[in-house]
């Protein structure tokens, strides 16, 4: 055959050029795909190894082994912790009842540069309508994806919220206790020893809310509220005191397996050294804590109730008679108070 003939030879047909191009392209794509996957897997392995090494590096030099359960290294989705990423964070919840000094106590906590307490986030019903919404809210909070005025310029070392007993805390106590244990959350219980004073404060607060004083604007103005003297329902006084104390006992029973400490408003007022133990409990440097909140009822009890004689006659001779002599603002010897406080804390930390 002539070398320049256009007729093909009778041997095996050679694939047309377009088919060859397609086959080469497919082969090249396959090689690139395999190489890319291998590089991606290596990068993921290195990234995960780096995270593990970073976490080990953050934990080992600073913290004893028994503390690891209660310290965390959150990785917020909404921002980067940057230079604070190796700063361990302790999660906490401040549990209390209305008119027990929790608002004042929270301002004390937030005066610390490394503590952020984010208020009553469960005062909104949609956040506590069921256990799922509660746990989702807690997950967002403890991952540091919660923006409030409690944010600090310094690295956060303790992060939490204030939770009232009547805001779903007792309604789902088993699930919440399991969550707090699993997440390594510490609990600070804050109550009042003198339930009678608390009842008086509740009535004054209700009056303030309903009366809407100061030109129709609701403001908790200490001087005006202090002038209001409620009339206590003597017939239900003892049942109300008994129910409030049972509510507290039930709460402590439900959450006694969680790392916690118990505080009383009266102890903090009388002895500011109690705040040092709180900071040690939260694992933050001890600082002097301050608050600008003004206390309302600082007078002796007989001057706070209009029907004091009826109240006194009702409680005298009962197990609640000691409430009649209770004075939050009497300062007994510091040494005795400090010893009593430490016993209370150690008893419930074991």
UniProtKB/TrEMBL annotation:
EC category name: transferase
Start and end residues of each Sulfotransferase domain: 92-290
Residues passing through the membrane, by range: 20-36
Alphabetically ordered keywords of this record: Membrane, Transferase, Transmembrane, Transmembrane helix
Molecular-function annotations in GO: sulfotransferase activity
EC number: 2.8.2.-
Pfam families given in the database record: Sulfotransfer_1
PANTHER family on file: PROTEIN, PUTATIVE, EXPRESSED-RELATED, SULFOTRANSFERASE
Protein family: Belongs to the sulfotransferase 1 family.
Protein name: Sulfotransferase
Organism: Oryza meridionalis
